[in-house]
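User: structure tokens for this one?
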Amino acid sequence: MEAGTEPRAPFRWTLKRDGIIAPDERLPWPQTIAVGLQHIFAMFGATVLAPILMGFDPNTAILFSGIGTLIFFVIVGGRVPSYLGSSFAFIAVVIAASGYDAAAGGPNPNLAVALGGIIAAGALYAVIGLVVLAIAVAAQLVIELFYFVFFETVWRGRSPGKWLVGLGVTRADGLPVSFGASLVRNLLRSVDVLPTSYIAGLTSMLVTPRCQRLGDLAADTVVIRYDRPLAAPPLATSADGAVPHVGFPREHLARLGPDERRLLRQTLRRIEPLAPDEAERLAARVAQALAQRMGGDTPPAGDAVNHLRALHARILATRSARP
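Assistant:
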């Protein structure tokens, strides 16, 4: 892996000897020290000159500038190389508000008049930063929420990403996911991501039988994999290849619509791998439902599988006999 592509721990920088130095990189130590000394002179104006012009104690300004910089480094994990000095934007305002004579020098006797405004400006900056952060987080949540809820609701539980990897979301009972269920499971993404990197959601998936994250548990949904359907095997007409004696008049067959004929084909395919008794029970239920639809007699006990195969053969024969 190339340098600079691995995740970097806080307060560690990748050594780079030439080219553009990124925020997560550093020069060799001799050059780093030289650039650091240069930065000290560059920050002298903001840390020492600006406080002198406003009548502040330079020692106090340097002390709290250093404390503020250390706190800033801890908050950003050392990822933003910046030094917090004074702002020249305050010089004219402080001098005007306190009536300080910068040319005379010395401590500012009316500094208390300006301190309230400085604190208020700092508080306003913090509020603006929090508002911008809240708007950005809210916008991200709305976009992500709308994206997933929209696609999962209108596209059978699949977003474009899930579709590409063959996944989808359904209700736990196998029915299509509803708008409310999709909304709940995606709202709880903010809980699944806690404390970081989806640890809560991954833990829930490891301990639940159906690998459900917390959002899925609350919404009673499950993520499933859509396997590519296999080619349907050919259907046999009967166990020995011959059509049984049962007859099906054309007027009875005409009462079977596309859904009933699809049910017949799917049932015949489904019973192929089953044990004979299980296949007979399933075939008997379907044969009874189709018989009620057609208005004919139900098959004799123990002959439901052959009855369905005969019915399917009769449908195929009727279709091929059409002019």
